[in-house]
Amino acid sequence: MKSVHLSRILIIQMITTLVYVVNVNAADAPALELEQQPDPPDLPSSISGTRRARDLIQDYISARKDIQEGPFKTSDGRSAVIWTAVAPIDAPTGSQGFGLARWTAFQKAILDVKAECAKFQAAQIKSEVQAIYAKPDAKRAEEDAERLRREGLSAEGAIKVAAAIHNDNVARSESASLATASLYTQKIITNKLEADLRSKGIDPNQPVEQAKIGTVLNSAKFSQAVGVEAVAKCSGIQALVTVENTPPNRKGEIGVVAIWTEKLHAIASSFGTGNWKLLPQGEPGLKLADHLPKTNTGYLATFGTQLVRDESGQYVLLAFAQASPDSDSSREIDFAYRRADTLASGLIRQFIGEQVMLSEDLMAADEATEYRDAAESYSNNSSYESKIRAVAERQKVSGMTTVARRETRHPAANTPVVIVVKALMGSSIESAARMTEVQNKPAPSGGSHSGNSGAGGTEAPRKATGSFSATGSGGKDF
């Protein structure tokens, strides 16, 4: 009897331990943001030879249930926006130029999404400025900090950013706090807005009537200045899925469902600056393998770059590239892999280059009195891409690794496609940025160590003399 009783006790202990382990593991499971979650496995196919891209887009959004087109709130209370776009594939399905035409159509659709994003952000910025200036001066930094924290920035980072936006002295001593492109422009707009209000005899430190703020913001000068910030704020936008209508032997179309959040924008900017202080540290994500598609169709439906977080909490930039061999021969497939490998590396450089380009534009905007309309930035696709490429070519990005190589066939064209996925870890950018900071730090004059040359000194913001990147090509300094 004793042995039976002992056995029961052991069984109960084992069950208790198992329940405890399950509960602990469930508690430790990463709470991923919407934009960090892989697609559910039961989504409808994204490639069809008979259905329009717009219908496939609606199928995807309906099946997800946690997203909707336009602005909405995520389950964790953050603001998100979904845009969709469709672009033609200018080569018949299965023709020799079909693979390149698919990629070109994706790029066109993404630029169309960015143009819509810029219009939305411009209206949003004006609305936020009016709401902030309706409050007493003492409340503005506090409310901005709460908004930024709610949108995914770290609590400390949000407080520093808000203080820097609303106080010039803090902006000088905490210039690194304005580390995203849009935050830097928000500071520019705030300074110019307050100067304009003072010139009209309005005290900006007191609550300002929305009608008076609106009159200033809707002037041609400020509308265009807001447009510069709007374009910058769209960095970080990424495709959730790419769909295709590819009818046999005819020209088809590519559709894109893209998402933007404030946190994605902050991550994108951090890959340009190497400054990760605005983001919460150590939030666990998924293993890189779990961020990759699970099916061949999933790989075919994934183009461009993705910002993800791994299981250690480190942010990673993934680049998905495809190439179409001219035949099934081993030689042609090897050539295609090389092209896809080069394209994947180029996508990472281009992503970094875009962050650098946006910040260079903002540095110039600091002293400008006239600006281009926001939507015009994307109206000439080839011009915009050429400008990014020119900046990207200056970036010496190291630390890229290949995380996937895959060979499949396009289901509609029945042609071979090879896929290469490359990754750049955020730690590579951060390390290079620290090295650049050390290299660019002026040596103390006369061998003496002045108190203002180290961490304790307060220095007014300076303009960058060149591009900034994680690779030593210059230093970003607000």
Polypeptide structure, described:
By secondary structure, the chain is an alpha+beta fold. Helix content is 49%, strand content 15%. It has 16 helices and nine strands. The strands form two sheets. A five-stranded mixed β-sheet has the order 1-4-5-3-2. A hairpin with a 5-residue loop joins strand 6 and strand 7. Helix 4 packs antiparallel against helix 5 (155-166).
SSE blueprint and pairings:
Layout: H1 2-28, E1 47-48, H2 53-64, E2 70-73, E3 79-92, H3 98-133, H4 137-150, H5 155-166, H6 168-173, H7 181-199, H8 210-217, H9 220-233, E4 238-245, E5 251-261, H10 262-273, H11 288-291, H12 296-300, E6 304-309, E7 315-323, H13 330-365, H14 376-379, H15 381-392, E8 401-409, E9 416-425, H16 426-440
Parallel strand pairs: 1-4
Antiparallel strand pairs: 2-3, 3-5, 4-5, 6-7, 7-9, 8-9
Helix pairs in contact: 3-8, 3-9, 4-5, 5-7, 7-9, 7-13, 9-13, 10-13, 10-16, 13-15
